[in-house]
Amino acid sequence: MQKREARVARKTNETDIEAAICLDGCGTAQVDTGVPFFDHMLSAFARHGLFDLEVRAQGDLEVDAHHTVEDVGIVLGQAVAQALGDKRGITRMAHAAVPMDEALVLSALDLSGRGGLYWAMDVPIGAIQTFDTQLGREFFGAFALNAAATLHVQQLAGENAHHLLEAAFKALGRALSAAVAIDPRVEGQLPSTKGAL
Fold it and tell me: What is the pLDDT of residues 132-143, one digit of tens each?
């Protein structure tokens, strides 16, 4: 089977980003966004989703990391959508609950063609190095919209911001990996009663 992969670039007055993903990878990541904690989260997403991921981002970090984080979400979501192609044969819907010490986060998604984030997380407001913890929601929202995925992220337990965010990124990786998996029982078919996604 040919590997499903895509590369997307986006340049604005605020950011210059290029991302590539292989959905049929083994979890390798080469990530450089200028935001170390965000690099760690994207690497965890790739490792636990078994995606091969490359992200290079230059942004206006002298302002803050907001534009960089959100725009990486946009580009990565677009890359996932392109790599999926017409979505024939995929599982489509999946979920994963991931523990990280005291934190437990559920990610459930549907590659429905209707992008939207439903965020039920109470992440303490603060900073992890140069990463504003409120940017987690910005990344997930941009990713879901541009991947055309209905995405629920729900906190089941936890209070440590690092643990909650890391569990969320890992859960997204696991759930997306299961959703993009090819189901041999429906080879070549669209996973929809409408016949379109």
Answer: 999 999 999 999
- For the entire predicted model, the pTM comes to 0.95
Structure tokens at 54: 């490359």
Query: How many Cβ atoms from other residues are within 10 Å of residue 101's Cβ?
Result: 13
CA 109 to CA 115: how far, in whole Å?
10
**CA dist., res. 167 & res. 99, Å (int):** 6
Element housing 93 (H / E): strand 93-100
* Chain-centroid distance, C-alpha 82: 14
What one-letter code names the amino acid at 61?
A: L
**What's the pLDDT tens digit per position in 40-86?**
999 999 999 999 999 999 999 999 999 999 999 999 999 999 999 99
Residue whose token pair is 């230059």: 58
Name beta bridge partners: 104.
Answer: 99, 157
Measured at the CA of 8, the angle between CA 111 and CA 140, to 5 degrees, comes to 45
Contact 107, 174 (CB under 8 A): yes
Cα 27 to Cα 191: distance, rounded to the nearest angstrom: 26
Report the half-sphere exposure of 13 (CA within 13 A, side-chain side): 0
